[in-house]
Amino acid sequence: MVLARVDILGVPATPCTMDEAVDRVAFCIQTGRRSFMTFSGVHGVMEAQRHPEVLRAHRAADLVACDGAPLVWGSRWAGVKISGRITGRDFVVACCARAEAEGWNSFLYGGKPGVAERLGEALQDRFPAVKIVGTYTPPFRAMTPREDEQIVDAINASHADLVWVGLSTPQQELWMAGHRDRLHPAVLFGVGAAFDYLTGELSPAPEWMQRMGLEWLFRMILEPRRLAPRYLRNNLAFIRAIAHNRPRLLPGATSFPRGS
Predict the structure, then answer these.
(1) Which of 21, 52, 158, 251 could lock onto 134 through a cystine, CB 3.0 to 4.6 A?
(2) Furthest-apart CA pair in the chain: how many Å?
(3) What is the DSSP string of the chain?
(4) How far is the C-alpha of 190 from the C-alpha of 65, rounded, in Å?
């Protein structure tokens, strides 16, 4: 199976279906591949423009799924057929359904205090056979080297196949890029606010707003003080940048055996 990649302002987005993304996870697990995947939108792309280390993290990812509608539109502009977004919250559900069938272990890292534990309970209610082998909520400050070493040891001791990272962008991308090679073979996922959506801390936008690419507006209305400056700054900057740098199909598409 071949997955195209599209250069969107330097970020290698992978326009794919949900099934293709989950199959990619299966391939990584079966081959013992240390990898990480992220679900990106305009915020992630624009953070990559401002910070070289964030751009490097996106480029090191095994898959950058098109979570934001503008990445879907950019992929279509480059000539790739893509039906729609893959949100982090939808991917958690789809991948956990496969994890239940395959027996994959999951570790939940991130969220506000108590959210990772509630997410584990919610997933086990929905998928009774899913295996949650650990949770951890990092402090809202830089972790000490000792604390960081302890959480790496805890994740490795859990024998997790999947490590779900519910931090904000770009913190989650930087964490995954910095920890991938320190963890035993596993697939790491930066799913951002999925922890909050799947535990009911946040409500998704109405479907019509999601279809029109207006979920950012819905979230901004709910949290104007925190999100309005981010969205207004990023959306305008993205439009200006992409008008001068058209998305393009990258050579060397990602490939792996069909049915993995």
Answers:
(1) 158
(2) 50
(3) -EE--EEETTEEE----HHHHHHHHHHHHHTT--EEEEEE-HHHHHHHHH-HHHHHHHHH-SEEEE-SHHHHHHHHHTT----S---HHHHHHHHHHHHHHHT-EEEEEESSTTHHHHHHHHHHHHSTT-EEEEEE---SSPPPHHHHHHHHHHHHHHT-SEEEEE--TTHHHHHHHHHGGGSSS-EEEE-TTHHHHHTTSS-PPPHHHHHTT-HHHHHHHHSHHHHHHHHHHHHHHHHHHHHHS--EEPSS-EE--TT-
(4) 10
Report the candidate in 85, 105, 106, 93 with the shortest Cα–Cα distance to residue 39.
Answer: 85
Mean pLDDT, rounded, for 149-157: 96
Per-residue pLDDT tens over the stretch 94-137: 999 999 999 999 999 999 999 999 999 999 999 999 999 999 99
- Please give the pLDDT value at position 211: 84
pLDDT tens for 214-249 read 888 888 898 898 889 888 899 999 999 999 999 999
What's the pLDDT score for residue 141?
A: 85
Find, among 199, 152, 202, 169, the residue nearest to 61 by Cα.
Answer: 169
* 254 strand-pairing partners: 3
User: 187: which 2 tokens?
Assistant: 């697939």
Ordered by start, the domain boundaries in the chain are 14-216+228-255
- Tokens describing residue 26: 């299966």
| pLDDT of 260 above 70 | no
Cross-strand pairs, 40: 66
